[in-house]
Amino acid sequence: MEYNIIEISEIEKEVEFLVSKEELNPYLDEELEKLRKDVTIKGYRKGRVPKNIIKALYKETIRTNALNSLINQYYQKLLEEKNWQPAGDVELLKLEEDDDKIKFRLKIEIMPDFNVENYLGLELFKNKPLPLEYIYEETIENLRESYASVRETDEPAAVDNFVTLDLEVIKDNKVNEQKKDITVKVGDRSLPDDLNRALVGIKKGVKRQIKIDDSTYRINVKRVEEKILPQVDDEFAHLLDCENIEELKKRIMEEAKEKEENRLREELEESLARILLERNHFPVPKSLINFEYQLILKAHNLVDSESNKERFWEIAEKRARFNLIIEKIAQKENIKTEDSEVMEILNKSSQEIKEDRKGAIEYLRKILTKAKTIDFLINNAVIIEQERLFIPRR
Question: Where in the cell is it found (predicted)?
Fold first, then answer.
């Protein structure tokens, strides 16, 4: 096998092959036989069409498929000879033919060669869990807010009240902005601080001018409304499909416990990823980074763009590098996922895999093995709990 390797980087190679045209003949014969088995031509039985007719009708198809088979065969031989593991699809850069030679160039991205050490006994940090009663109170207050009603009041406006007003913004003696019957929340941080201060204590029918920077805000208050929070009782519980307040509290506490456990687990995983990424630097194949990048775009319902690439490419690189580190540790510790474990998950899933079932099974196997490896590392780590600040509602 005659070839020349051009080193683009540690993980990117271009390889130029030179092959005798005679080596293409077996592949041409193989493709001819494949077509002959399936082609149906009037006047001939299936599988009995003469070879010269097949060649005449499908010359280009036969040659293209034969060349693809030849190229793939040489590519596979090269991977085996060099002990390379491909990171993505191979790219055909050039294909040339003369009277007796075929020359083609491939671009190959391979997995990096690296080692991971000192990954046992890592010091991982997590915050102490929040008291469940605190989470319950926060949840209840948020639920009350979401089920709140409003009513008009003649009292002066206070923080969290709603004020409906007409607004004019004057700048350079010209009306720069004009709005009618807009409703704002007193204390809303999106409003200028001076405007918020002016709204506190204001009443229906009041007209006022407020100087803010180089603009003058003219407001005419049409209505002041106060927020009415529901009482925490059985009637409130009914709104949330619970028989009584005791059942609601039990449900909230159970959900809070699960949510807090998940949050603490995420903190440990983030701490683990941060340490492993700081200790292990190596080039990551672009195809793996792009895979993670596309997942991020899909999760956020975004399209590929230069701005999104600038925002997320580094995050995708870290995710891809972390995955490679975890895979290397799994190999060293012989952590595997059996077929029966994968099939158990698939059987429980309500989604039917219609296409590329083999690919889906291997992808799921990777996910399960990754989870096992992370469990292994956390179980063999030193967990340090940190105090956390939280301010209970009054």
Answer: Cytoplasm
Contact 316, 290 (CB under 8 A): yes
Whether residues 103 and 26 share a domain: the answer is yes
Decide which of 88, 109, 130 is a domain's last residue.
Answer: 109
**Per DSSP, what are the bridge partners of residue 209?**
218
Same domain for 320 and 220:
no
pLDDT by residue (tens digit) across 35-60?
Answer: 888 777 877 777 778 888 888 888 89
Q: Which domain holds residue 290?
A: 257-386
**How are the residues of the chain apportioned to helix, strand and coil, as percentages rounded to the nearest 5?**
45, 25, 30
Q: pTM of whole model > 0.85?
A: no
**Same domain, yes or no: 293 and 179:** no
Task: Give tens-digit pLDDT for 121-157.
Answer: 999 988 888 888 999 999 999 999 999 999 999 999 9
| 143 within 8 A of 248, measured Cβ to Cβ | no
Those residues with Cβ within 8 angstroms of residue 264's Cβ, 6 or more apart along the chain or in another chain: 126, 127, 129
